[in-house]
Specification:
binds magnesium ion, Rossmann fold, 33% helix, four-stranded parallel β-sheet, alpha/beta
Length: 143
């Protein structure tokens, strides 16, 4: 499913001459198994999540947006942790690169092309590997 969303985004990018596509990525239950304890941040990633996000961080044609309900003080810790893992998010819960248009108001819902979110059908146990394979395939994510 997530691979289909990515390939659809690539096709749209080609048709519309975009330079980059936007990936919105949730933390808990998506990147990392939740601890369900306040103040106790998870430290481990689901299999392949780290490598996918590292590879995506290096690409100019993928913009990573952290899409999370974490509290501000946790966010700082998360962003530091991700940086230590060479994962770099461009934005948090916003996409200032895409402004409102005649057909889209992004004031409260940031614009993105692909959503990595366990509550929206992303399965962290099985969906990271196909994305990794796509990223490693020279013909996988391009337009
Ligand atoms: Mg979640």
């Amino acid at each position: 499913m997530i691979v289909r969303a990515i390939t659809t985004a690539c096709r749209t990018a080609r048709e519309r001459n975009w330079t980059r596509i936007y990936w919105a990525v949730d933390i808990h239950g998506t990147m990392m198994p939740p601890t369900h304890r306040g103040g106790d941040l998870p430290r481990t990633f689901y299999d392949h999540a780290r490598e996918v996000l590292q590879l995506a961080s290096k690409r100019e044609d993928i913009c990573l947006i952290l899409y999370t309900c974490s509290h501000d003080h946790e966010l700082k810790e998360y962003l530091t942790l991700f940086r230590e893992h060479d994962i770099h998010f461009d934005f948090v819960n916003e996409n200032p690169e895409v402004q409102n248009t005649a057909y889209g108001n992004y004031d409260k819902k940031p614009y993105f092309n692909v959503l990595f979110e366990d509550k929206a059908g992303f399965d962290p146990e099985s969906d990271w590997l196909p994305v990794l394979e796509l990223l490693k395939d020279p013909a996988g994510i391009r337009w």
